[in-house]
Write a structure and sequence with these properties.
Layout (H helix, E strand, L loop, with lengths): L3 E8 L3 E3 L18 H5 L2 H13 E7 H8 L22 E4 L13 E4 L2 H12 L3 E6 L1 H9 L5 E7 L7 E2 L10 E9 L4 E8 L3
Parallel strand pairs: 1-6, 1-7, 3-4, 3-6, 4-5
Antiparallel strand pairs: 2-8, 7-10, 9-10
Organism: Kribbella sp. HUAS MG21
Protein name: Dihydrofolate reductase family protein
InterPro entries: DHFR-like_dom_sf, RibDG_C, Riboflavin_Biosynth_HTPR
Length: about 200
Protein backbone atom coordinates (compact mmCIF):
# COMPACT_ATOMS: atom_id res chain seq x y z
CA UNK A 1 0.00 0.00 0.00
CA UNK A 2 1.23 3.48 -0.83
CA UNK A 3 2.78 5.42 2.06
CA UNK A 4 3.69 9.08 2.50
CA UNK A 5 7.40 9.11 3.28
CA UNK A 6 9.34 12.19 4.32
CA UNK A 7 12.86 11.52 3.01
CA UNK A 8 15.54 14.14 3.62
CA UNK A 9 19.21 14.57 4.47
CA UNK A 10 19.93 16.56 7.61
CA UNK A 11 22.94 17.70 9.62
CA UNK A 12 23.56 16.57 13.18
CA UNK A 13 22.33 19.98 14.36
CA UNK A 14 19.10 19.74 12.38
CA UNK A 15 19.69 21.75 9.18
CA UNK A 16 18.73 20.62 5.67
CA UNK A 17 20.82 23.33 4.00
CA UNK A 18 23.73 25.46 5.05
CA UNK A 19 23.49 29.25 5.42
CA UNK A 20 22.66 31.45 2.39
CA UNK A 21 20.70 28.77 0.52
CA UNK A 22 18.86 29.83 -2.62
CA UNK A 23 18.95 29.78 -6.41
CA UNK A 24 22.54 29.19 -7.48
CA UNK A 25 23.47 27.89 -4.02
CA UNK A 26 20.79 25.29 -3.43
CA UNK A 27 22.33 23.53 -0.44
CA UNK A 28 23.77 26.71 1.04
CA UNK A 29 27.28 27.32 2.29
CA UNK A 30 28.82 23.98 3.27
CA UNK A 31 25.60 22.14 2.55
CA UNK A 32 27.10 19.79 -0.04
CA UNK A 33 28.30 17.70 2.91
CA UNK A 34 24.68 16.68 3.51
CA UNK A 35 24.61 14.71 0.25
CA UNK A 36 28.11 13.22 0.22
CA UNK A 37 26.47 9.86 0.96
CA UNK A 38 24.61 10.11 -2.37
CA UNK A 39 27.61 10.81 -4.57
CA UNK A 40 30.59 9.43 -2.62
CA UNK A 41 29.03 6.88 -0.29
CA UNK A 42 29.50 3.16 0.21
CA UNK A 43 27.58 0.28 -1.33
CA UNK A 44 25.24 0.44 1.67
CA UNK A 45 24.54 4.13 0.98
CA UNK A 46 23.83 3.37 -2.66
CA UNK A 47 21.48 0.55 -1.66
CA UNK A 48 19.49 3.02 0.50
CA UNK A 49 19.27 5.45 -2.43
CA UNK A 50 18.24 2.74 -4.90
CA UNK A 51 15.58 1.38 -2.58
CA UNK A 52 14.04 4.84 -2.14
CA UNK A 53 14.08 5.53 -5.87
CA UNK A 54 12.53 2.16 -6.73
CA UNK A 55 9.76 2.69 -4.16
CA UNK A 56 8.83 6.18 -5.39
CA UNK A 57 5.59 6.69 -7.30
CA UNK A 58 5.26 10.46 -6.82
CA UNK A 59 7.23 13.29 -5.22
CA UNK A 60 6.15 16.31 -3.18
CA UNK A 61 8.36 19.36 -2.70
CA UNK A 62 8.13 23.03 -1.78
CA UNK A 63 8.44 26.09 -4.01
CA UNK A 64 11.89 27.12 -2.77
CA UNK A 65 13.35 23.76 -3.80
CA UNK A 66 11.53 23.90 -7.13
CA UNK A 67 13.08 27.30 -7.88
CA UNK A 68 16.56 25.87 -7.24
CA UNK A 69 15.88 22.81 -9.42
CA UNK A 70 14.31 24.76 -12.30
CA UNK A 71 17.00 27.47 -12.34
CA UNK A 72 19.50 27.48 -15.24
CA UNK A 73 22.13 25.80 -13.05
CA UNK A 74 19.64 23.35 -11.50
CA UNK A 75 18.68 19.93 -12.83
CA UNK A 76 19.68 19.36 -16.44
CA UNK A 77 18.54 17.12 -19.27
CA UNK A 78 20.88 14.33 -18.16
CA UNK A 79 20.06 14.23 -14.46
CA UNK A 80 16.69 14.00 -12.75
CA UNK A 81 15.12 12.93 -9.47
CA UNK A 82 17.13 10.71 -7.13
CA UNK A 83 20.45 11.39 -8.91
CA UNK A 84 19.18 9.27 -11.78
CA UNK A 85 19.48 9.93 -15.52
CA UNK A 86 16.28 11.39 -16.95
CA UNK A 87 16.08 8.51 -19.43
CA UNK A 88 14.92 6.29 -16.58
CA UNK A 89 11.36 6.41 -15.34
CA UNK A 90 10.90 9.62 -13.37
CA UNK A 91 7.94 10.19 -11.04
CA UNK A 92 5.63 13.20 -11.31
CA UNK A 93 6.50 16.00 -8.88
CA UNK A 94 3.90 18.03 -6.98
CA UNK A 95 5.08 21.47 -5.90
CA UNK A 96 3.24 23.12 -3.01
CA UNK A 97 2.90 26.84 -3.71
CA UNK A 98 0.30 29.60 -3.79
CA UNK A 99 2.02 31.24 -6.79
CA UNK A 100 2.70 28.79 -9.64
CA UNK A 101 5.22 29.99 -12.23
CA UNK A 102 4.00 30.98 -15.68
CA UNK A 103 6.35 28.39 -17.27
CA UNK A 104 8.97 25.85 -16.26
CA UNK A 105 12.34 25.11 -17.82
CA UNK A 106 12.04 21.39 -17.07
CA UNK A 107 8.69 20.75 -18.75
CA UNK A 108 5.49 19.16 -17.52
CA UNK A 109 6.80 16.79 -14.84
CA UNK A 110 5.84 19.42 -12.26
CA UNK A 111 2.29 20.01 -11.05
CA UNK A 112 1.47 22.92 -8.77
CA UNK A 113 -0.90 22.60 -5.82
CA UNK A 114 -1.93 24.86 -2.96
CA UNK A 115 -1.37 22.74 0.16
CA UNK A 116 0.34 19.58 1.45
CA UNK A 117 -3.07 17.90 1.76
CA UNK A 118 -3.92 18.64 -1.85
CA UNK A 119 -0.48 17.42 -2.92
CA UNK A 120 -0.91 14.11 -1.09
CA UNK A 121 -4.42 13.60 -2.50
CA UNK A 122 -3.28 14.17 -6.10
CA UNK A 123 -0.09 12.16 -5.63
CA UNK A 124 -2.11 9.16 -4.43
CA UNK A 125 -3.97 9.17 -7.74
CA UNK A 126 -0.76 8.58 -9.71
CA UNK A 127 1.53 6.73 -7.27
CA UNK A 128 -0.32 3.42 -7.47
CA UNK A 129 1.17 0.99 -4.95
CA UNK A 130 4.41 2.99 -4.73
CA UNK A 131 5.26 5.58 -2.10
CA UNK A 132 4.76 9.32 -2.11
CA UNK A 133 8.12 10.85 -1.24
CA UNK A 134 8.25 14.28 0.41
CA UNK A 135 11.80 15.37 -0.38
CA UNK A 136 12.10 18.96 0.72
CA UNK A 137 12.80 21.49 1.60
CA UNK A 138 12.57 21.57 5.34
CA UNK A 139 9.40 23.66 5.51
CA UNK A 140 7.27 21.30 3.40
CA UNK A 141 8.66 18.24 5.18
CA UNK A 142 7.75 19.66 8.56
CA UNK A 143 4.35 20.89 7.34
CA UNK A 144 3.51 17.39 6.07
CA UNK A 145 4.51 15.83 9.39
CA UNK A 146 2.68 18.47 11.45
CA UNK A 147 -0.50 17.98 9.39
CA UNK A 148 -0.55 14.28 10.24
CA UNK A 149 -0.09 13.29 6.59
CA UNK A 150 3.18 11.34 6.92
CA UNK A 151 3.43 7.60 7.51
CA UNK A 152 7.24 7.38 7.62
CA UNK A 153 10.03 9.83 8.51
CA UNK A 154 13.27 8.83 6.82
CA UNK A 155 16.33 10.85 7.84
CA UNK A 156 19.83 10.63 6.40
CA UNK A 157 21.91 12.21 9.17
CA UNK A 158 25.20 13.47 7.76
CA UNK A 159 28.26 13.72 10.02
CA UNK A 160 28.45 17.52 9.92
CA UNK A 161 27.44 20.42 12.17
CA UNK A 162 26.43 23.25 9.83
CA UNK A 163 25.76 25.84 12.53
CA UNK A 164 23.00 27.53 10.55
CA UNK A 165 20.86 27.33 7.44
CA UNK A 166 17.39 25.96 6.81
CA UNK A 167 15.94 24.06 9.76
CA UNK A 168 14.08 20.80 9.34
CA UNK A 169 12.08 21.57 12.48
CA UNK A 170 11.16 25.14 13.43
CA UNK A 171 12.75 26.82 16.45
CA UNK A 172 9.37 27.86 17.82
CA UNK A 173 6.95 25.37 19.46
CA UNK A 174 5.05 23.20 16.99
CA UNK A 175 3.05 19.99 16.65
CA UNK A 176 4.77 16.90 18.03
CA UNK A 177 4.74 13.35 16.66
CA UNK A 178 5.41 9.90 18.07
CA UNK A 179 7.99 7.84 16.18
CA UNK A 180 8.90 4.15 16.11
CA UNK A 181 12.27 3.11 14.67
CA UNK A 182 11.79 0.56 11.88
CA UNK A 183 15.23 0.55 10.21
CA UNK A 184 18.73 1.90 10.81
CA UNK A 185 21.66 1.69 8.40
CA UNK A 186 24.98 3.08 9.59
CA UNK A 187 27.78 4.14 7.21
CA UNK A 188 30.70 6.58 7.52
CA UNK A 189 28.77 9.04 5.31
CA UNK A 190 25.38 8.98 7.06
CA UNK A 191 23.09 7.40 9.60
CA UNK A 192 20.02 6.31 7.63
CA UNK A 193 17.13 6.25 10.11
CA UNK A 194 13.58 5.24 9.21
CA UNK A 195 10.75 5.88 11.67
CA UNK A 196 7.10 4.93 11.50
CA UNK A 197 4.95 7.90 12.49
CA UNK A 198 2.70 6.72 15.30
CA UNK A 199 -0.85 7.79 14.52
CA UNK A 200 -3.33 8.49 17.31
CA UNK A 201 -6.25 6.05 17.30
Amino acid sequence: MSQVVIDISVSVDGYVTGPNAGVGNGLGDGGDALHSWVFDGTDADRAVLEAAFDATGAVIQGRNLFDVIDAPDGWNDEMGYGAKPTGEVNPPIFVVTHTPPASTRLGDRFRFVGSPGEAVAQAREVAGSKNIMVMGGGQICHATLAAGLADVLQLHVAPVVLGGGTRLFPAEPSVGAGLELIEAVSTPAAQHLSYRVVKEK
